[in-house]
Specification:
Blueprint lengths: L10 H28 L6 H21 L2 H18 L21 H34 L1 H23 L7 H4 L1 H13 L5 H27 L2
Helix pairs in contact: 1-4, 2-3, 2-4, 4-5, 5-8
């Protein structure tokens, strides 16, 4: 049997929102602190990345709070928007590439700053995926729910590759659709010509799936 839907304003949901808000606030404070220490805006882009990571969680929360008739009508269009923006959350993990010794700030501070943002990206990704999986399970059952979650994480990993290495953004679906379409189709039709694409997709996909499964199991053991 699929798990029952959470009440919109349950104590567990409010606690989750508070924890996520506190964690995101810490990351922003670390970025602001670095700006004050160095007078440079080196990692200010992480605030923008955090904002993008919040979008899929906002979309899944909106669907979860919607009345059932409206939820049914909006599930497909909002779900597609969620799928489009969902890679932005785990993408924050790849910002660890920016870690390097820089003058004016200890390396441990930059490590804590980037790690906190990466952590928030993962938690926002898992929280929003849990919301979407619950909606799928309510309609189709637990096995399709997990199939959906697995596929969503693999697609997110492919999106991470597109963003990190090909420098595409979610809005390129509208702003630069032909180039995006060509690059995707080219890699699908000639997979052996792009081993890095599928290496990143598979490794990150397995990593995200194991992490998601672990978080879900931790939640159950805590009940």
């Amino acid at each position: 049997m699929p798990p029952p839907p959470l009440p919109p304003f349950s104590r567990a949901r409010l606690t989750l929102l508070f924890a996520l808000a506190a964690s995101v606030a810490l990351s922003i404070l670390l970025v602001v602190g670095r700006v004050l220490m160095t007078g440079r805006f080196t990692f200010l882009f992480l605030v923008w990345n955090l904002f993008l990571a919040l979008i899929p969680f906002a979309l899944s929360s909106f669907l979860g709070l919607a009345p059932r008739p409206m939820q049914t009508r909006l599930l497909l269009p909002v779900g597609l928007m969620w799928l489009l923006f969902s890679p932005n959350a785990p993408y924050l993990v790849t910002d660890l590439f920016h870690l390097d010794a820089r003058p004016g700030v200890p390396l441990w501070y930059d490590l804590a700053l980037i790690l906190s943002c990466a952590w928030n990206g993962l938690m926002l990704a898992y929280a929003s995926l849990s919301d979407m999986q619950r909606l799928v399970q309510q309609r189709l059952g637990p096995e399709p729910g997990w199939a959906f979650a697995t596929l969503a994480l693999l697609l997110s990993s492919f999106g991470i590759y597109l963003g990190r290495y090909l420098r595409f953004n979610s809005w390129d679906v509208l702003a630069n659709p032909l180039t995006l379409f060509f690059d995707i189709v080219n890699r699908v039709l000639h997979p052996f010509s792009f081993p890095g694409t599928w290496g990143v997709t598979l490794v990150f996909g397995v990593f995200l799936l194991i992490g998601y499964g672990t978080v879900r199991l931790l939640g159950r053991t805590a009940e």
